[in-house]
Amino acid sequence: MTTTINLLPWREERRQQQQQEFIALLVLAVIVGGLIFWLWKGHVEQQVADQRARNNFIEQKTSELDKKISEIKDLKARRDELVARMKVIQDLQGNRPTIVYVFDQLARTLPDGVYYTSVERKGDLYTIQGVAESNNRISRLMRNLSNSAWFEDPALQKVEAQDEGSQANTFSLTVKQSSPNSKKEEKEQ
């Protein structure tokens, strides 16, 4: 039997082959790593882009809601103005007959020898200025106003003699308007 001996440098060939396999595996690993990194980077960029799109959408809807909120505030302000106007109109409609009764009572409570020169109203307070033949007639006017169902709390502000030759006096007084129902309730108590 003959044996053959291999005298070729097989160890070096084996090392070279292993080195080539190692380099090939290393290149393959770098390629696979690069591919995985590229895919991961693409995925992250897509998520960032999606989040930016969601943020833009939210900002757009927020600005739309802000516009609607300002419109609602404007509508509420308009509604409040209209309600206030309606209340004024209703008050005027409700007080319409009252002024007729007030003027009627002013005429009924006026004693002989007294006349009014002006009547001013501020809220429920009337300021009456006039001329009377004597102080007794002014006090009679105040009693009449006090006994009226439409007036209360007459208060004399001033009395002045008109001139030396005349007995007439000018006067100024205030009186509050009351509702006839409140006078009835007071009398019942």
Automatic annotation (TrEMBL):
- Where is the segment annotated Disordered? 161-189
- UniProt entry tagged with the keyword tRNA processing: no
Coiled-coil stretches are 58-92
For bias type Polar residues, the affected ranges are 164-181
What does the record list as GO biological process?
type IV pilus assembly; type IV pilus-dependent motility
List keywords of the entry alphabetically.
Answer: Coiled coil, Membrane, Transmembrane, Transmembrane helix
* Ranges annotated as spanning the membrane: 21-40
* Record has Transmembrane helix as a keyword: yes
List the InterPro entries: Extracell_DNA_Util/SecSys_Comp (IPR052534), PilN (IPR007813)
Which PANTHER family does this one have? DNA UTILIZATION PROTEIN HOFN, TYPE IV PILUS INNER MEMBRANE COMPONENT PILN
Q: What is this protein called?
A: Type IV pili biogenesis protein PilN
**Organism for this UniProt entry:** Alcanivorax hongdengensis A-11-3
